[in-house]
Structure to design on (298 residues):
């Protein structure tokens, strides 16, 4: 749980290609053998771990969800509704992460998405995000939005008109 | 054309099977969502989203899950049980729910047992009416 709470402390996507506020987003990630976990996963046969494809989707879709509420909510990954993988992703591959908003409410949001390499469908991943302040009644979280730090802010530069949301952390 | 109760049940079952990863036959009218079907809190929101989509209805969360706001009010809860006032309030807010067992011992820990497949079917039926 703690790891999920700090979702945005590290960035696992390289840039956005498209960002339609409240609707959809497309992000890109280049996969490189310089990523050390690929040396162990697996020796002699490096492939991107599926859990890290889910992370890439969680970041792409999580930013889509967060931006639609002007980053006022602490958005955390709450449920993996679907994760189906069709192909390996290898070092040197460029993958695109396509996320679409399915539903959003004051407490939560759900998204659908695909990961593609060129025209090949690599994975289908549907997620649910919780706006934690609205869900865990009685539990206190820090006032500042520790989920969305300014580290990722540059990712959105040029995609949304007002990119000067309050960021801390 | 209005949906029959059986049609509503079938669709509710499909929603629950998809949201909770169940087999068709696990979803009976009497099954409790948390106890029998293993739903967790985030699953309720997932179910709400899916119901809205499946039936084309709007489901304000406090309508389907009104218990949350009651629990923090000392007029409604005393010593871990709902007071008469609390019970009356809950009944008014959850007309689609069967309270017969709960009334005998309105322990807040048993509140979640009120959420059965049947209560969801009743809720949707009332919404579509």
């Amino acid at each position: 749980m703690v790891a999920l709470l700090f979702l945005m402390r590290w960035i696992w996507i390289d840039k956005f290609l498209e960002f339609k506020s409240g609707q959809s987003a497309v992000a890109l990630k280049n996969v490189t053998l310089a990523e050390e976990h690929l040396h162990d996963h697996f020796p002699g046969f490096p492939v991107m771990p599926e859990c890290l494809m889910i992370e890439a989707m969680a970041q792409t879709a999580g930013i889509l969800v967060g931006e639609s509420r002007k980053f006022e909510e602490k958005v955390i990954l709450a449920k993996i509704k679907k994760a189906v993988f069709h192909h390996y992703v290898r070092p040197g591959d460029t993958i695109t992460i396509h996320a679409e908003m399915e539903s959003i409410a004051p407490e939560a949001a759900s998204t659908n998405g695909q990961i593609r390499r060129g025209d090949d469908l690599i994975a289908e991943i549907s997620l649910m995000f919780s706006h934690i302040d609205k869900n865990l009644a009685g539990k206190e979280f820090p006032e500042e939005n520790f989920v969305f730090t300014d580290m990722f802010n540059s990712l959105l530069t040029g995609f949304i008109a007002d990119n000067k949301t309050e960021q801390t952390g | 054309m209005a949906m029959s109760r059986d049609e509503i049940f079938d669709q509710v079952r499909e929603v629950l099977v998809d949201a909770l990863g169940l087999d068709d036959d696990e979803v009976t009218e009497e099954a409790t969502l948390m106890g029998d079907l293993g739903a967790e809190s985030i699953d309720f929101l997932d179910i709400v989203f899916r119901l809205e989509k499946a039936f084309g209805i709007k489901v304000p969360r406090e309508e389907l899950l009104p218990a949350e706001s009651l629990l923090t009010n000392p007029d409604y809860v005393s010593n871990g049980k709902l007071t008469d006032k609390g019970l009356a309030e809950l009944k008014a807010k959850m007309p689609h729910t069967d309270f017969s067992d709960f009334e005998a011992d309105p322990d807040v820990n048993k509140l979640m047992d009120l959420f059965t497949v049947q209560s969801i079917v009743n809720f949707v039926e009332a919404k579509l009416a």
Observations:
- The first strand of chain B starts at residue 77 and ends at 78.
